[in-house]
Design brief:
DNA-binding transcription factor activity; DNA-binding; Tscrpt_reg_AraC-type_HTH; 3-stranded parallel sheet; transcription; sequence-specific DNA binding
Length: 288
């Protein structure tokens, strides 16, 4: 009699929704080095622990669990340590991820670029699993660079190198840019993650543990010289334009995804800011 082999169960991992760095990098590491068939689940922050119990999933990148930040190291670092991954390219990648995830871009030259790409992807893809699919490609590419291409340079010709040196010298001679405080960085991420919800300056100030009056007074210094309300509306309009140009969502769906109460409200604010109706930004079909 033939008995089919008992296969190990597919691992389930769960983390908070709207991933940026760690919550894309860790699923990539899981599927490429730990369990290629692993199921990745995203859930609202306050539901991760409960859903982990319900789904028999392992929570990660949330406070109070095993797979999380320790000291200056991010969750990706812990996965590498826990599963004893010795691949030098992964160790190179870990530093880049750590720098991007903890805002210590000085750790690796690639960290700021990884953050910029990740933030842009999160802005363009409101669905977390679509975002993860694109993120897998990003980390595949970054891993290949770390594994095979670290010594490659884009500027190979002497003239190109000369121009690059002149440009770098110019940058070093410029006065230092205004340092952005930690609360402003955190606030920017909060706004980006919750642009589809009702955002209150008073409630956010509680989360940041600073006074509403201080936040209101200082906000424009770090957010394009705009007030809190103006900046929120600008971000919503920009996201709406991106969705209209790159997705098949209806205007009603886009209004909902960008935090407007209904399509009428969305259309009114959109026209006020751009001078055009939302439908004008739709991609027109190419002429045959």
């Amino acid at each position: 009699m033939y008995f089919a082999p008992i296969l190990p169960p597919i691992m389930k991992w769960i983390t908070r929704e709207r991933p940026k760095i760690d919550r894309l990098a860790c699923p990539w590491l899981i599927r490429r080095f730990i369990d290629k068939d692993a199921e990745i689940i995203y859930a609202p922050f306050d539901q991760v622990t409960e859903k982990a119990k319900q789904l028999n999933a392992i929570p990660f990148d949330v406070p109070g669990v095993e797979f999380t930040h320790y000291g200056n190291h991010c969750t990706f670092d812990y996965f590498v340590q826990k599963y004893q991954i010795e691949d030098p390219a992964i160790h190179t990648l870990a530093i880049i991820v750590r720098g991007a995830d903890t805002d210590h871009h000085e750790l690796a030259a690639q960290s700021s670029g990884l953050w910029a790409i990740s933030a842009g992807l999160a802005f363009n893809y409101p669905n977390d699993h679509d975002l993860l699919e694109k993120g897998m490609l990003i980390y595949d590419g970054l891993y290949s660079w770390a594994k095979h291409l670290q010594k490659e340079k884009h500027t190979q010709q002497p003239f190109e190198n000369l121009l690059l040196n002149v440009f770098n010298t110019y940058l070093k001679s410029k006065p230092g840019a205004k340092k952005i405080p930690a609360w402003a960085k955190e606030l920017k991420e909060i706004i980006q993650d919750h642009i589809d919800t009702s955002l209150s300056l008073k409630e956010i100030s509680k989360d940041l543990e600073i006074s509403p009056s201080y936040l209101s007074r200082e906000f424009s210094k770090y957010f394009e010289d705009l007030s809190f309300g103006e900046y929120i509306r600008k971000q919503r309009i920009e996201k709406a334009i991106a969705l209209m140009q790159s997705s098949g969502y209806s205007l009603t769906e886009i209004a909902y995804l960008t935090g407007f109460s209904d399509q009428s409200h969305f259309t009114r604010i959109f026209k006020k800011h751009t001078g055009k109706n939302p439908s004008d930004y739709r991609k027109k079909p190419a002429k045959k």
